[in-house]
Amino acid sequence: MKIQEKVMIKDIISDSLSKSISYSEYRALVGQLVEDKSTTGNEKTEALSNYTMLNDRRMKRWDKTVKLSDEAISNIKSFDKNTTWLVITESWCGDAAHVMPVINKVAELNDKIDYRIVMRDENDALMDSFLTNGGRAIPKLIMIDNATNEVLNTFGPRPSVATEMVNEYKSLHGKLTPEFKEDLQRWYNKDKGQSTVSDLVNLLK
Description:
CATH topology: Glutaredoxin
Radius of gyration: 17 Å
Largest sheet: 4 strands, mixed
Distance between the termini: 23 Å
Helix content: 55-70%
Shape: globular
CATH superfamily: Glutaredoxin
Strand content: 5-15%
Order of helices and strands: HHHHEHEHEEHHH
CATH class: Alpha Beta
Oligomer: single chain
């Protein structure tokens, strides 16, 4: 990456961070949207509002039930670099509802990790700097070194196991069907956040 590009990305990240919110603020926002039968993002459709309501329920469940192994906890607690984990999301995103509570569980274990959240549609320049295979896929976690403002790593939009499942299905069928999306939700429920924990621990190495 050219120096000029790096400087530009740092400026974009800095601008987005100034508009970011904490996970607890995000959960309160989603709760309010459910009451208002609304959603984040540029499109305010009934379908997306319904997804927001469903995701609020999913996040409530994961906030209570995600468990981490002793080994994962030890690895997370031993991480010794001040970082910000900036996540790009929207309240209607199904993958985000499964992933974001897990990120929170990890971040809560280490006060050197500052977990911040921004909305995709309000941060075009940021999203377009961190595309996945050319697409504006969310959630996307950007791991930033607080001392240098350098981007150390990224994660998302899905844990690596789910990404493989998606890529395999797309290569066979050309696109994701509603049936596959239901299968993916079942996989998330069965996995209980463990693949996400594993990927996040790898980020810290």
